[in-house]
Amino acid sequence: MKEITKYKTLLLFLILLASVSIVSLFYFWNPANNIIFPKCLFYSVTNLYCPGCGSQRAIHQILHGHILIGLKYNYLIGFLVLVLGYQLYVFIAQEYYNKNIKNLLYKPLATKVILVVVVLFWILRNIPFYPFNILAP
Q1: Which of 12, 25, 61, 69 gets the most CB atoms within 10 Å of its CB?
Q2: Where are the alpha helices (DSSP H) in 67-107?
Q3: pTM for the whole thing?
Q4: SS3 for 64?
Q5: pLDDT, tens digit, for every residue of 70-80?
Q6: Chain-centre distance of CA 120, in angstroms?
């Protein structure tokens, strides 16, 4: 039992270290004018925006406190923050406070809703006239 806790602690430390490293990378280097960040392969091939296009620039802007500018690069980032925040809440409540919370995101309906939101966003941001063109990065 003690060995499992040791591995959990090590895994948590590695996740924290990776997260701090990635956040630092996005904070100190702007993806808009730096070649160390990968370009979107889907956009390069099709000249259409994928659901993730603009998210690297959005993260950089949000980390610098420019939340509205960051959201303009990719509005789906706000949805991602809500989903990940909920996942973190459930994880902390279950692991550290021993609360029995059923994760709503594990339901088939939640998966379908997330899929529909992402696909609709993908389609709508590629329509080249107002108001849909404001979804493009």
Answers
A1: 61
A2: 67-73, 76-97
A3: 0.81
A4: coil
A5: 999 999 999 99
A6: 17
